[in-house]
């Protein structure tokens, strides 16, 4: 149990990662905030959140619960800056903020939508791990720390399409973003995107986190290929922190270098049977935890209700104004 304080306003503070207050019963506040999220272009965040709120409304109505407040973080940050010791609803968390974050399933199409497609492709193609090309591939935009990783990987003056001694490495960026657009030194690392089906022809998939969790991690786990990555630093409802090195993926150090990638690929080359088992375990993980979207949504709605019940903030009246009357000291229990 812990003490915490919640002080809810329409928008707690304005920054790229914004905190919103939502309610567990239908309200003008929810409508207003969902409209704002949609106008801000939050991909499918707002539509998934609307589905979650409908489930929350149903649960709280059946329980005859009063209207309560929920604080939601919208954006890619996993920080708990600005919320003190409060809990917050979020699509992702890091290990430092995990005990203050209640994960909810949003942006489902972006993060989970390719998993059934990959499972179906691998089954229909009949392509097993041993049959795939002896290559390691990655394609992605220059978010997060990927630029530094790419630079280190090619620090020995190799280019993205140059083969290593043992395994081919085709690791490249597809687009420069977030201040890197005018960096001429990065253009040599740009290559055309590769379709997911073409990436699945290769034995090894390099997974790199971007602004938060790596978007491709879920479909990569679903494949018959082997995931190479650093231990995850971010987690969604997909349970990335449950992944185990040498069980679900081949680990790389937190700071990925050319030498570290070469060593990992050399290990893979010399341990093909173990790699095949790793790929199978990762696919089982994906089938068990990443496919049933309805279950993920129902579980997310239950977590939201439990979170709201633990805030001990009850909102009076049929609709909610811009403020909750006062901040209250409340008891929390971990989720």
Structural summary, described in words:
By secondary structure, the protein is an alpha/beta fold. The chain has two domains: 2-105 and 293-332, no CATH class; 110-235 and 239-289, 3-Layer(aba) Sandwich (Rossmann fold), CATH 3.40.50.2000. Helices cover 35% and strands 18% of the residues. The chain contains ten helices and 13 strands. The strands form five sheets. The chain has a five-stranded parallel beta sheet with strand order 8-7-9-10-12. Helix 7 links the parallel strand 9 (202-206) and strand 10. Helix 1 (28-39) runs antiparallel to helix 2 (45-63). The longest helix is centred in the N-terminal third of the chain and has 19 residues, at 45-63. It is globular.
The helix-and-strand class reads alpha/beta
**Large-scale geometry:** globular
- CATH top level of the largest domain is Alpha Beta
Which parts are unreliable, with pLDDT below 50 for 5 consecutive residues or more? 1-16, 316-335
User: What do we call the CATH topology of the largest domain?
Assistant: Rossmann fold
Oligomer: single chain
What's the CATH superfamily of the largest domain, by name?
Glycogen Phosphorylase B
- In DSSP terms, counting alpha (H) and pi (I) runs of 4 or more, how many helices? 10
- What number is the mean pLDDT? 81
DSSP strand count: 13
CATH architectural arrangement of the largest domain:
3-Layer(aba) Sandwich
Helical proportion, percent range: 25-40%
DSSP strand (E) fraction?
15-25%
Q: Kindly, what is the distance between the CA atoms of the first and last residues, rounded to a whole number of angstroms?
A: 11 Å
| Elements, N to C (H/E) | EEHHEEEEHHEHEHEHEEEHHHE
The order of strands across the largest sheet is 8-7-9-10-12
